[in-house]
Amino acid sequence: MSQNLITEEKVYEELKKAIVETLRVDESSITPESSLINDLGAESLDFLDINYRLEQAFGMKMARHFVLEHIEEMFGEGTALDEEGQLTEKAIELLKIRFGDNMAELKAGMDMDEIPAMVTVQSMAQGVMDILSSLPEKCPKCGNSAWKSDDGAKVACGSCGESAAYANGDDLTKAWLTTVQEEKNIF
Ligand SMILES: [Zn+2]
């Protein structure tokens, strides 16, 4: 369901806040195209911190694992990465479907260590919006369609008060992989 309770502007606002608080960078240095690692100086552990802040802000669960890990788990060892830890052509095909122009530099034979530097402010915001748009139409507790948000970030049922029931990021990735595999039979 696409819901308009939380605007794209709000997602960027909270993401920038999380980045500023975690990385101690000036907000004016953050653009949608900024690579968190290359442009803003993030290290691996900083992603956990930023994700945590986003989870607190919106009341949802970000993905813990990157799509490559899910590919290997679902379609077998070696499907996403070869013995040298380089991305397979099939993995690249899939990442291009998922991230498109957000990760224009993707090519087969890349080392998986090069991937984190491709995460941009825009691709993180998209990840948040994907989760937020998983909100079911009806509240699973009372069955009413009465979602509302008082602060433009946290959503709760206006009828029974239950917090918004979003899919978690990892489950969304797996569901997406299943659908793409059914449609395109990549693996
Ligand atoms: Zn309810």
In words, what does this structure look like?
α3 crosses α6 (169-184). Strands 1-2 form a two-stranded antiparallel sheet. β1 and β2 form a beta hairpin. The radius of gyration is 18 Å and the shape is globular. It has a single domain (8-134, 173-184), classed as ACP-like (Non-ribosomal Peptide Synthetase Peptidyl Carrier Protein, Chain A, Orthogonal Bundle), CATH 1.10.1200. The chain starts with 7 loop residues before the first helix and ends with a helix. Helix content is 42%, strand content 2%. By secondary structure, it is mainly alpha-helical. The chain has helices spanning 8-23, 44-58, 67-75, 89-99, 121-132, 169-184, and strands spanning 147-148, 156-157. The site of zinc ion has 8 residues, from loops.
What's the gist of this structure?
By secondary structure, the protein is mainly alpha-helical.
> What strand line-up does the widest sheet have?
1-2
Order of helices and strands: HHHHHEEH
Helix content: 40-55%
Mean pLDDT over the residues: 93
**CATH classification, class level:** Mainly Alpha
Report the sheet-strand fraction. under 5%
CATH architecture: Orthogonal Bundle
Summarize the biggest pleated sheet.
2 strands, antiparallel
Rg calculated over all Cα atoms: 18 Å
Number of helices: 6
CATH homologous superfamily grouping: ACP-like
Uncertain ranges: none
